[in-house]
TrEMBL record:
PANTHER family: RIBOSE-5-PHOSPHATE ISOMERASE
Cellular component, GO annotation: cytoplasm
Pathway(s): Carbohydrate degradation; pentose phosphate pathway; D-ribose 5-phosphate from D-ribulose 5-phosphate (non-oxidative stage): step 1/1
Reaction catalyzed: aldehydo-D-ribose 5-phosphate = D-ribulose 5-phosphate
GO biological process terms, semicolon-separated: D-ribose metabolic process; pentose-phosphate shunt, non-oxidative branch
Entry keyword annotation includes DNA damage: no
Name of the protein described by the UniProt record: Ribose-5-phosphate isomerase
NCBIfam families linked: rpiA
Entry keyword set: Isomerase
Pfam families associated with the record: Rib_5-P_isom_A
């Protein structure tokens, strides 16, 4: 039997912002910084050292957000847990492993961890946990919780996801989970999974509906060609103008695509209608609470988002369950 309530939670590694064509934070060039000891001898902190310290702070924030989300949404009595992709999810798996070390399942019972792709399966295996393929889940089983990463979030908890090129399988897991938790970083565009044969046609269509210079995602080494998903599809990264939410439309703004200005759901539907598109990296629509209240199984959109802030605090944004 399906559970009576579904939650979809995401974890973020920085403070929330609205969807934007330019969502990556631009840092000023680092300069040499001088610090003085008690005897006034000058010491130099090189740009590389400053940059390394900044990266370390960000990683600490991501780890803290992951541990907070796992503490709030995981317990050893669960049986099926979804594990997504991305750099932050590694900390989520680490937190789960630590939890199980302190509180192992009773009676030697196994917990099965369902990955959203090859990378997350390796993370599960390296942690000594038991992986299970998504298509091996029994028909009437819902995941107790799923932890995943995402790249952006807006005030309505719509999310951009796909920086790890696993968006199709991540949506499968999201809509099969009672609770869904995400870890968020930053991504400057909307990832779209497309059939290789159709990528040029899709890019042309994206430009016609307002995307600003969509690009085919390629490996760092150009000779290795385009990035391919676990389905053998390509990823197009398509920047758009900052997306509107339902509240904007209610207040009179036009989100129908005029002059390239879109509301989140309208844009997702438009992109999905393009021949050759398998999936779009917008997680939108009703959340798990709303879907189950209407008699469904699960929703793409989270009911909560965790943000690991650079000052070491963890912020949480939550949707209210229906009354």
């Amino acid at each position: 039997m399906f559970a009576s309530q579904q939650t979809f939670v995401r974890l973020f590694s920085s403070t929330p912002s609205t969807f934007s064509t330019h969502t990556l934070r631009i840092l000023r060039p680092l300069s040499r910084r001088y610090h003085f000891t008690r005897n006034m001898a000058a010491t130099v902190q090189t740009p590389d050292a400053v940059a390394a310290a900044a990266v370390d702070l960000i990683e600490q924030a991501k780890r803290k957000a992951a541990y907070r989300a796992v503490a709030d949404h995981f317990n050893p009595e669960m049986q099926f847990v979804g594990i997504g992709s991305g750099s932050t999810i590694i900390y989520g798996v680490e937190a789960i492993k630590d939890c199980l070390a302190k509180n192992p399942p009773k009676g030697g019972r196994y917990i099965f961890f369902v990955p959203t792709g090859f990378q997350s399966r390796k993370v599960i295996e390296q942690a000594g946990l038991m992986p299970m393929a998504f298509d091996s889940l029994p028909e009437n089983v819902m995941l107790d919780v799923a932890f995943d990463g995402a790249d952006e979030v807006d005030d309505d908890l719509n999310c951009i996801k796909g920086g790890g090129a696993c968006l199709f399988q991540e949506k499968l897991v999201a809509t099969r989970a009672k609770k869904f938790t995400r870890l968020i970083s930053k991504w400057p565009s909307i990832p779209i999974e497309v059939a290789p044969i159709a990528h040029a046609t899709v890019m042309r269509q994206l430009k016609l509906i307002g995307s600003v210079d969509p690009v085919l995602r390629e490996h760092t080494l150009a000779k290795t060609g385009p990035v391919q998903t676990d389905q053998g599809f390509y990823i197009i990264d398509a920047p758009f103008k900052p997306l509107l939410i339902q509240e904007d439309v209610k207040n009179g703004k036009d989100g129908s695509g005029k002059d390239g200005q879109w509301e989140v759901t309208a844009l997702a539907h438009k992109i999905k209608s393009i021949s050759g598109v398998l999936e779009v990296g917008l997680f939108y629509g009703p959340n798990g609470y709303e879907v189950q209240a209407a008699g469904g199984q699960g929703g793409q959109k989270p009911v909560a988002a965790y943000f690991g802030n650079e000052d070491g605090t963890v912020g949480v944004k939550e949707a209210q369950p229906p009354k």
